[in-house]
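writing this on my phone so excuse typos. first protein, seq and then structure
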Amino acid sequence: MQPSELSLVAAADAIRQRRLSPVELVDSVLDRVERVEPRLGAYVSVAAGQARRSARQAEREAAAGRFRGPLHGIPMALKDLIDVAGAPTTASSRVRAGDRAADHDSTVAARLAAAGAVLVGKTHTHEFAYGLTTPQTRNAWNRERVAGGSSGGSAVAVAAGTATFALGTDTGGSIRVPAALNGVVGLKPTYGLVPRHGVTSLSWSLDHVGPITRTVADAAAVLAVLAGHDPRDPASLPHTPGDPRPAAYPDATGDTDLTGLRVGVPRNHYFDHVDPQVEAAVRHAVGRLETLGARLVEVEIPMTRYLRATQWGLMVPEATAYHERTLRTVPELYGADVRVLLEAGELMTAGDYLRAQRARTLMRREWARMLERVDVIAAPTVPTTAVPADRQTVTWSDGTVESVSDAYVRLSAPANITGVPALSVPVGHDGAGMPIGMQLLGHPLGEAVLLRVGHAYERTAPARELAPVA
């Protein structure tokens, strides 16, 4: 096994025990980048020289017994919405071509650097995170299929071994969707748990930052570094004395006993208009949870008829407000799909936006009531696997036609509207070999439970390998 194939937890353990050098690990990842990146297009930019300098410094510190933190010497990638001092933040858009480099690190970049992580590069997003396919990037399992979005570059980098972990952002599923489509783990934390200062916004009331990793234990390790209050983010959750959240996440030695845990299985919405192979794989995974001791509880998802209107009613006007100046001065620099959405936001009224806000308030209340009956909900992450890159719609067995973007956002948007945490875990492949993801949703600040359940499932499944990039 090459070092680039190691999970974060395994690599970090090897570095701490001096069985692996940060230089060896970073060199292995950069060698992998050189071999497969031209075929995948995951990165906007690769900082190979800086990464090697950081790795040598990490090696000197390790040799002296000084470790900066739990991610010491671990290669990472950051979605190119996340500011890194000295590097431009392009948002994969011509609108920002020629923009000067960021003056300061974002909060998350600073926390990861302080914990010892080594930046390999910045990854592609669907332009300004406003889409679910990331057209610049190809799926790690099949280059003819979409990568998913908007954090497609980050998910592909992790799946292909060109980063040991990465960060993405999630406004309507943009961490979980590409994670599911590329066979890796994606975590959208509770709204406000991870600060967004220094991260380009799509929709400030829906935006989240979180990790994309190879294993659930890896996601737990990254979240422990990211979580915590930052007064520069108005939505950041306050820190209270003795707050256990950053230390509450399980490690790779956790057991698989889920006795007494209540797993909600939706009777509506999450299994409606879902590919039969996706449904079968997810229901099989839910059955695995039951064999580990969990009790399955059927639940009714509330207010489903309002989900799409609420998601778009919040996101579209907020995105348009953010882009107001450049939309008027350089509209021709936006991609056609993004420009149409931004212009649509100018047609929405204040009343439309306020109705969406009211619907969200009611939805959060009803979800809180539903979650009183269960500890987690288990469901598909997306209704179908990665579609061919040139496909615009999905046709279901009853003749219903749905745009690809609407299909991919449909099952992930509820967690953004309500702010509850959601974890996508790989649970198999379809007949064409494309990955399938199961989504676990929990109580606000219930990440520890989600990670415990995801980790327990993961330990019953075969070990996952890197995507076979061809």
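second protein below, same order as before
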Amino acid sequence: MEVIWKATSQNAVYEEARVGRVFNHRRPSRFPMAVVNAAKEADIVDAVKLAVEQKCRVAVRSGGHSWAAWSVRDNSILIDLGNYKQLEVDAENMIAKATPSMTGRELNSVLIKEHGLMFPGGHCPDVGLGGFLLQGGMGWNCRNWGWACERVVGLDVVTAEGELIHCNSTQNRDLYWAARGAGPGFPAVVTRFHLSLLPYPKKGFRSSGYIYPMSMYRKAFDWILSITPSFDNDTEIAVISHYPEGSDEMRFFILFVVMKNTPEEAEAALRPAQETRPDGAVEEWFCKEDSLDEQYDKQEHANPEKHRYCAENAYINNDADVPAVLEEAFTTLPHRKAFALWYAMNPCSRRRLPDMALSMQSDHYFALYTVWEDESDDVRCQAWVKNVMKRVERHSAGAYLGDSDFQTRKTKYWADDNAKRLMDIRRKWDPKGRICGYLDQGDQSGTTGLTNAHEWKL
């Protein structure tokens, strides 16, 4: 087990261990007492036991993609899982066992090429499974296939006292319940996920896109809202406001990604959008051959490395005038690399969820991804996000853990009963607050956890 101590290591070595794998280059001023680079499951057990001996907290880094860098905590031992990558596939039973630092692209590269299978992981290719699944997992075609965490059939974890145990629907059921939606407040360290897989629709993976001038914002948005509830159940629908590369004008981009068994099925699924789309698109394509790998490339381009990020989000109320609520966010982006997203969640949002911690959703998921390069732009870009969210949040049911920063805004992340049950489970399994948990302002949440309440109502 490699341990890099802050007090005794060279500064460059320590800094690389502390933040070298943090995706967001708006790096935090928080300093773990040590970083453990785990390479095997036993290293994780030993790292937790080391934290017990040192009477300090434990933080965990899977992919390093948390916008708020939740893994970097004062007075902690940071267990970095970047070198701990293992995958076992039972193709016959469509089950994979994967370690938390495996990314969606790494996992699906093996599943697709060797087994003709896939897992609906994160859209950004370098997002690790660990944080993604613990916070729920808004993965590929979530609006129809459901949350990725619903496909977690079991997991292996190290408890706050250093014991290795298995959790599923019959063993350690309360931890299994919490693992599907607790986010960074999960009171144990996951060493392996057991995942239910899907067939990969290689022949029928297609997309349609319609790019409109921002002057057609209202008309195009009203159209997509009208067709979404009854649209094909293998089609993901997203709306993005962004500056296309080389353009001085923002565009309103509507994307359909369909995953069918045949090209004919894909064309039939996408045809209703093609036949009802508003005139006036500056660019469009219909039922173009596509692939998961190509989609990963586009996501990677939209979320470039070595940039500074500020993300925020909200589930917009089902009865809201969504285009009006989101107009400022979609039409006043503060930087040419920033983008705003609306993601269709209906019909998943209308069904009864399994018994699990994740419980917050609506028909309309909205997120801001503010991207810039220079530190001098920090104040301006963050202020824009904060001001936009002040107006949007009063029309929201709550927020998604994955695109949130608990240090800057309070809102709801779970149904009230689920939040209370989750915090009780955290205190049961980690009464001393060994696992760092939720990074709120001042990192004070401890065993209390989050308040799970809208800020404007407190």
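The CA atoms of residues 212 and 402 lie 29 Å apart. thats all i got for now
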